[in-house]
Amino acid sequence: DRDGVVLLAAATFTSVTAARGAVSNHFAAYSGPSLDGLRYLEETRPGEYRAVEWMRRAIRGTPVILEAQGASYQDFSRISMLTGLPTVLGWEHHVKQRGNPPEEVDARREAVSLIYSSKTTAPAENLLRRYHVGYVYVGWLERQTYPREGLRKFDAEKALFEVAYENREAKLY
Q1: For residue 114, how many C-alpha atoms fall within 13 Å in the half-sphere facing its CB?
Q2: DSSP string computed for 111-139
Q3: DSSP secondary structure, 154-166, as one string
Q4: HSE-up of 62 (CA within 13 Å, CB side)?
Q5: Strand partners, 64
Q6: How far apart are alpha carbons 24 and 21 in whole angstroms?
Q7: Does the chain have fewer CB atoms within 10 Å around its N or its C terminus?
Q8: Cα separation of 67 and 136, whole Å?
Q9: Partners of 129 in the beta sheet?
Q10: Is 0.70 surpassed by the pTM of this model?
Q11: How many CA atoms, within 13 angstroms, populate the side-chain half-sphere of residue 51?
Q12: Is 166 left (phi over 0), alpha (psi -120 to 50) or beta?
């Protein structure tokens, strides 16, 4: 039956072209198949890759990391995900799914924003202590998300923020 042959040909064509497209078009740099889940980061953001590798090697225990917070399924919470270290607030929807009250999620979102955005250290210091933050991460996403004036305090207030790691792309206080 002719209709069946046409349908089979169309289905085969679609399957072959879709499979080819799935393995040839990538959102990030792609240098071939690998079992190394961090290779994309090494190729696209080598400084951030080096920072993550340093954190994985050098940080002991599970200190809380402060990093940029924002929409789920974006680059937010990347440092926590790549190191396994806790963060003040990860992807909001997942945090709510785990039974955390919306008010707590809202408070944490506002705290992260205030810590990074405040020009002075007083509000930041209180919130860092409240959430037991051990390290503050400043990379490309933090610089893109928060005002420069707020980020300057991390370098200016050396008594409160000591640089633990630094390269051209990332800084960890």
Answers
A1: 16
A2: HHHHHHH-SSHHHHHHHHHHTTEEEEEES
A3: HHH-TTT---SEE
A4: 7
A5: 133
A6: 5
A7: N
A8: 7
A9: none
A10: yes
A11: 27
A12: beta
Q: Which two tokens stand for residue 108?
A: 């944490």
CA distance 140 to 80: 15
Nearest one of 112, 51, 35 to 83, comparing CA atoms: 51
Mean pLDDT (the chain, rounded): 90
**CA nearest 80: which of 137, 151, 147?**
137
Rounded to whole angstroms, the Cα distance separating 3 from 30 reads 40
* pLDDT tens, position by position, 137-172: 999 999 999 999 999 999 999 999 999 999 999 999
| Distance between CA atoms of residues 41 and 137, nearest Å | 16
Cα(53)–Cα(57) distance, integer angstroms: 6
Closest to 50 in 3D by CA, of 150, 139, 162: 139
What CA–CA distance (Å, rounded) separates 167 from 79? 15
